[in-house]
Amino acid sequence: MSNPQPNSIEMQSYRVWDRPTRLFHWINLILVLALLIVGGMMMFRSDLGITELSGKIGLKTLHVIIGYGFAINLLIRLVWGFMGNKYARFSHMFPNTNSKSELQSYKAELAAGKNPQYLGHNPKGKFAVLAIMLLLVTIMITGLIRAGTDIYYPPLGSTVQSYLAAADVEPSSLKPYDATGVDTDKANAIKPMKGLAGEVHVYAVYLLMLLIVLHVFAVIYTEVKRQPGIISAMFSGKKLIQGQPKDE
Question: Three-state SS for 47?
Fold first, then answer.
């Protein structure tokens, strides 16, 4: 007996993405875009006619404030990765000890003309999700370091001020990008750390931008060619699956 054709198999609806996961996804998207815009303005402020120190500090402050929203949203998601439903948990989202064999099996099925369906991320997607999450955490940590060392914002700002303040200088009196009251030797001592954090931050953002483009392309391709409804699922939380899902 021949196997039934894919279009003859009834579509079934499964609730997959819980509300906190969906909220994180869209809030993160909005905040990342906002950070990219403000970050771009910071990098090209001279071309935009922003030459005053107050303008530089203003842009940096706006970037940091948006960054706090980004960090809070990410931290909540990290916690939810251990508390959410099956498909929100990192144990299901990230690669594991079986991922190599799962990936080989997935590629073999595609090569054979089959169309494996997944409720969560497919084996390739799990590696992409891990990479994106690692980049987001890296960007958050390095961003907080620069927020503390550049404009003395929490959580590191007061500690940095206390370290940098010269003898008999009140740490809270130190101003961003102002050497008044700063111990020069200590300022020079933290420059390498500041520079490294800044470089890692910028290049992590560049890599994230590349992964975002690849992610969008992959989602659209999968939506059109392999598994319709994965985009709408991030709004509704429900996926329509044709046949038996591989990861039910």
Answer: coil
Which pTM was predicted?
0.90
Q: Contact 87/20 with Cβ under 8 angstroms?
A: no
pLDDT tens by residue, 89-131: 999 999 988 888 888 988 898 888 888 888 888 888 899 999 9
118: left (phi over 0), alpha (psi -120 to 50) or beta: beta
How far is residue 32's CA from residue 35's CA, in Å, rounded to a whole number? Answer: 5
Q: Is 189 helix (H, G, I), strand (E, B) or coil?
A: helix
What digits encode the pLDDT tens for the residues 151-189? 999 999 999 999 999 999 999 999 999 999 999 999 999
The answer to whether 181 and 166 are in contact (CB under 8 A) is yes
Buried b (16+ CB within 10 A) or exposed e, 140-149: bebbbbbbbb
